[in-house]
Amino acid sequence: MPLTVNVAGQVKQITLVTSKALWPLFETIINSIQSLEDSNVADKIIQIDAIRSDHAQLMVNGKEELAHFENFVVTDNGNGFNTVNYKSFLEAYTQLKVKKGCKGIGRFLWLKAFEEASVSSKYFENGQWHFREFDFTLAGVLPEQNDKVCTSDDMEQQTIVRLKSFKKPYYESVSYSLESLAKKIIEHCLPYFITGSCPRIILRDSEGESINLNSYYEQTYKDSIHQDMMELKGKQYVLYHMRLTDGVDKHELHLCANSREVKSYQLSSYIPDMKKKLVNGEESYYYVGYLSGEYLDEAVNTERSDFNFSDAPLFDSTNEKEIIGVAVHYIQLYLADELSKIANEKRAQIDMLVKTKRPQYRLLLNRRPEVYEKIPAGLAEDKLDVELYKMQQQWELDTARRKHDIEARVKQDATTDPGFQKLFDEYCENITDLSRASLAEYVAHRKAVLDLFEQALEVDASGKYSKESRIHSIICPMQTTSDEVKFDDMNLWLIDERLAYHQFLASDKKINSISILDSNVDKRMDLAIFDAALSYTADPNDINSITIVELKRPQRNDLATENTDPITQVYDYVTDIKEGKVRKANGRGFGNVQQIAFYCYVIADITPSLEKSAKRAGLVMTQDNEGYFGYNSAIGTYIEVISYDKLLKDAKQRNRVLFDKLFEPKLDDLKHPEVLDH
């Protein structure tokens, strides 16, 4: 008699991902357990033979490595394929064992992952022994009557299910280890082991290795199991807690239905502090939880591979998020001591980083203390910095969304709503806080730049000073113009705060790549900065001042010759511009540049050769003896020669008050009690 469903079509409709490759085997084992539940035999036993492929490969040491599992044979002494059970097998979606959570399609999973299956069964029925055997393939043709009456009186109940020729890629996703297979079987059938209703199960492979799963459970799992009773919307659940020292590599929560595991969740996605092993005294372990309950039994899908929470017959308002949320709450309570220790260590790590290196996030931690919980524990400093940056960006995004809510209410004329004023006040407070945080970030950036600049002035391991290009790049990226570089990448404030506000800048560009000029001119200014005269004219293209910066390598002592004298070089640049040799990119001149203010900066260490050049140019030494200044009336330019030490010292001094406020705040200045608590 053919099955009442197209087997090939039914198998094609079933989804079985490779991570669930062993589920056909699990279904077979569950069938054996349930068959033994209905049996009266005294010694209930299931034997699982995991037969490896004959195609083993040799390892480097000459030994054969373990081969993939190719076939599985499950033998039990339950009631077997008697008339009632065989008739149920012939009927797709049978309701025979619906109370046990069976969906009536488990056998179709056999043919999803294996080429074929065969069954042989000895059973006692109507006072006689019977023997039945058949092959189950995609053809799906089985006789209605295929049993034989046996005359022997010494027969025993026995049913053997053979799953043959594990399909690729399913077999490739299964570990070679027999112990790993044992753990997966136990964990899938864990509720049976926990309740003590599991029959004796022996697992062995074709290499002679054997594992008693009941003993293995007693030795490895049992002592670590605790349980909590949960209730959600009138439904009862049981959450089993386990601490496993080996065999797993992450913390997980498993949802079970009808005494078997169905779906797993990685707990680090819900509890950020559960990224690594937890520690209790000298023991380190991974947490594994199993949640079962009547509602989950009702909501499991046909293949028992997922849950249809929205289609559940009762209390369909209970969704997956709510169930996981309650379970996670109980897990946090169960692991309170370990998680509290991790949280305290993480908090101290975050506070230390923010206090010493990233003070721009102080306000973030003040206003959003939940950041401590959301950031995973055990991160390296660079990754922790990234997480704090993400949280800062999320704060800004949330504030922007609040702005849109305000605008929407204004359009709806809902400003009289009592909640509007609260929303508006919160938005204004966040804007103020974010502005302060942004300023803190900028101040921290300045300190980092100064630290980098100071390092660039030191000698390296070989006793050499940095090249001019390194120092130049810190002040402003080379081979760029202000149209090509971000504002935050220019650190002109190191020289003069006013230089940050300019119309156009060229850094280490040949003059003829900036504008059209005399063909004989082929010079390169380190920095040329053009300032628009917005205060004096309506034309934003008019130039108010031009600043030229010339940088030299630290401790360079050959700056007094005609070709190397930086003072002469900047004077020549000014002369070229005034004589019209330099024009705008559109080919037109700069207008009457004779009245434009020129500022020239020579930045270099005051070596004897530079000192000689400065005196020859008639410049005056500064009061601190770290530079020279003067005005050349013949050329019409103000000039400063600044030593690197002076540049660094002055920049630090200008920023000192900002650094003091940010990096060493005084408790009396902190206005918020929650900060004082920290």
Q: Notable features of this structure?
A:
eight-stranded mixed sheet; 20 helices; 678 residues; alpha+beta; elongated; disordered C terminus
Describe what this molecule looks like in 3D.
By secondary structure, the protein is an alpha+beta fold. The chain has an eight-stranded mixed sheet. The longest helix has 39 residues, at 418-456. It is elongated. Residues 95-104, 511-522, 532-540 and 666-678 have low confidence and may be disordered.
SSE blueprint:
Elements: H1 7-13, H2 23-37, E1 45-52, E2 69-76, H3 83-89, H4 106-113, E3 114-125, E4 128-136, E5 147-150, E6 158-166, H5 178-188, H6 190-195, E7 200-205, E8 210-212, H7 213-220, E9 226-232, E10 235-244, E11 252-257, E12 260-266, E13 278-280, E14 283-293, H8 294-299, H9 320-334, H10 336-356, H11 362-367, H12 371-374, H13 381-411, H14 418-456, H15 468-475, E15 480-481, E16 504-510, H16 511-514, E17 524-532, E18 543-551, H17 566-578, E19 597-603, H18 608-616, E20 620-621, E21 627-632, E22 637-642, H19 644-663, H20 673-677
Parallel strand pairs: 1-7, 11-14, 18-19, 19-22
Antiparallel strand pairs: 1-2, 2-6, 3-4, 3-6, 4-5, 7-8, 9-10, 10-14, 11-12, 13-14, 15-16, 16-17, 17-18, 20-21, 21-22
